[in-house]
Amino acid sequence: MRPILKSNKLDDVCYEIRGPAMEKARQMEEDGHKIIKLNIGNLAVFGFDPPDEIVRDMIMNMHGAAGYTDSKGMFAPRKAVMHYTQGKKISGVSIDDIYLGNGASELIVMAMNGLLNTGDEVLVPAPDYPLWTAAVSLSGGNPVHYVCDEQAGWFPDIDDMRRKITPNTKAIVVINPNNPTGALYPRDVLLEIVELARQHQLIIYADEIYDKTLYDANEHESIAALADDVLFVTLNGLSKNYRSCGYRAGWMVVSGEKRHAKDYIDGLNMLASMRLCANAPGQFAIQTALGGYQSIADLVGPGGRLLKQRDLAHQLLTDIPGVTCVKPKAALYMFPRLDPVMYPIADDQQFAYDLLSEEKVLIVQGTGFNWIAPDHFRLVFLPNSDDLTDACGRIARFLDGYRRRHGRG
């Protein structure tokens, strides 16, 4: 029979966080192996539960969640998001500028689908959250990766960004706080990005899903609050700050220079209508979450579990010979570097496979985040301290063996 092939639109699309290594891990689990999964920021499986009041309110409202809602979402949660943007000092946002989605992920794809024609370019950070690169490719565009500079705390290299702008460039993606590096961008860096967008009439897409997951008393500033003459599309949701990944409750806010974006906004409205609506139970969680007690502060503040596990993971990893890591200021991840002299890795996907096979630890290789060299990997620091210590010990043992096998011991 004639083979049934996938669409060629998927040729340049990949999502290594749930890629081949995860499938190999699943097969190993079926064979009876226990795998320590450090590949996905899925908080619930590590004992990080959503606030009780969110769960209670969703249960109380389930009787009203069976019907379709407005294609952009219910009024009350959108109003709560509007108040949230006001608290972030993003001006000029009305209810009509807010779209609720099945997580921010759905809205990222929608935003790219509504914008891009074949050959259009979008500047995406390297490393990035790979859904952004995939969404650009799937929408017919070309992702162009600008470098974030590890030596400068993983801040965007503005000169590199500037060099990569062409007449085909339509937008800049800013992931702040950053996944996978945990970087948090200061105002002066954000202002430079705004100025680039202003000069070249580009849209700024701001992924701010970790804007409350901040350590060491750091504060987050929304880039959309810094100008009103640039078009901003800001994305956020409940998955991380409120430990509600499975509720799929996210939002997208259009702000700034909207006068010349009417046609694009019409396209977003059309796409929102085509998917009918976001899931209603998840929408019911938004108002309660944003207006309730912000328990994430207890987890990231002094004595908090996330803070302690960040510090522990950083110490354990950087104690390994040849491993360095910029300490994250935000989010849930480490993106350590392996000295290429001590660890001459040619294929970091194979490296991740070998670590999984030998030590039963699942991480994601750095090139899975569109990093430029096979010398990094990402891990989540969500397991409890004992499991995290065990996992990092296994990584250390694997790397010790790797050095010896390659004459670097």
Description:
Helices cover 37% and strands 16% of the residues. The protein contains 13 helices and 15 strands. Helix 7 (187-200) links the parallel strand 6 and strand 7. Helix 2 crosses helix 9 (280-291) and helix 11 (305-318) runs parallel beside helix 13 (385-405). The model has no long low-confidence stretch (mean pLDDT 94).
**β content, as a range?**
15-25%
Question: Looking across the biggest beta sheet, what order are the strands in?
Answer: 2-9-8-7-6-3-4-5
Could you tell me the radius of gyration in angstroms? 21 Å
- The geometry reads as globular
The average pLDDT score comes to 94
Strand count: 15
Amino-to-carboxy terminus distance: 53 Å
Spans with pLDDT under 50 lasting ≥5 residues? Answer: none
Structural class: alpha/beta
The largest pleated sheet is described as: 8 strands, mixed
Tell me the series of helices and strands, N- to C-terminal.
HEHHEHEHEEHEHEEEHHHHEEEHEEEH
Helix content: 25-40%
| Tally of alpha and pi helices | 13
Task: Give me some keywords for this one.
37% helix, 13 helices, globular, alpha/beta, 409 residues, eight-stranded mixed sheet
